[in-house]
Amino acid sequence: MSELQVLVESKYHEARLCALLIVVERFKKASPAERDALYKFYLKNARYINNWDLVDVTCPHVVGVYLLDKDRSRLYELAESDNLWEQRIAMVSTVAFIRKGEFTDTLAIAERLMTHKHDLMHKAVGWMLREVGKKNRNTLTDFLEKYATCLPRTALRYAIEHYPEDQRQYFLKKK
């Protein structure tokens, strides 16, 4: 872990990515106690996870999987953070829940972050909404009926990407 700490603190993006990918691979084979330590290591070092690819490639496999059977309040704390990358971790980690057919946290966090000022958050929100729609179109449609007019254009376009053209136009015109 001390060597991972050195890598994750590196000024070089590639070194940080290497550290995080090692955490992901170790997490896959870890005991529950080791998973707990890796999860805590990941979040303790969130300030170094400072690029969209570092977040997107790693957080679902560590934070998301870890929280599948646990209290998810930490995600809501991250969503309320002033740090863009912690907010993105909160949003993107929910893909692990989506894969299991669980949408509540994704939709709640998307609702909190949908008016975020940063385009990278618009993309993350739209992406997770699109993933919900792949699993359950009706759930996404219900969400969009309520929030399409509030979603930034980028988030909306990502969310409706797999809809037929007439439905895409319907939601785009609501905007």
From TrEMBL:
Name under which the protein is recorded: DNA alkylation repair enzyme
Q: Looking at the record's lineage, which domain of life comes first?
A: Bacteria
**What would be one Pfam family of this protein?**
DNA_alkylation
The organism is Parabacteroides chinchillae
Record's InterPro entries?
ARM-type_fold, DNA_alkylation
